[in-house]
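Data availability (excerpt). The following record was deposited with the supplementary files.
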Amino acid sequence: MKKIWITMILTMIVLSLYSQVSRKKYIESENLIEWPTGFNPKVTDFYVQNEIEINASPEVVWDLLINAGDWNLWYDGIQNIKFEDQEEKVLRLGSKVFWNSMGQSLNNTIIQYEPNKALAWQFNESKIQGCHAWIILPTDNGCLVITDESQTGQLAKLQKLFLPNKLKKQHDDWLRLLKQQAESKNDLPGE
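Predicted structure:
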């Protein structure tokens, strides 16, 4: 029985290390995020970064990102979106928004809001705390969208060990669908 436990533990460690190879590591010199205190990836339990090139203007992408009340029309990774102010549908600095993601109910506050450039929210639950940031960089063909998430807490530690690619895959899906939506509304000259 002891050999079985040792084999299982070693297998989980090896699988965890192997699956993390594809995940981009935090590189401080390339950081574009204004991390709130305690959420710099150098000190947190879990971090992912994703990015995608989108052939649409930063304004089109921004509009899709801040219209959280409409996310469910094109993205299913976040459910039950509710604003503290029930009249709101669009994110703004200081907005409080509740939603479910990856089986967790999250109470989010918008902490960064720079139109067409940067958006970030922070959540603080008893077992997981995090900051999710979006950066939009203009390119010759539209924009590059980077999204980073840095987490702390018990669930962040478990996620890093047992499901290290789940959040990365969820963000990849979000970016892919954001790209589809933005490019269908493409407003670039000559397109």
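Summary of structural features: The longest helix spans residues 2-20.
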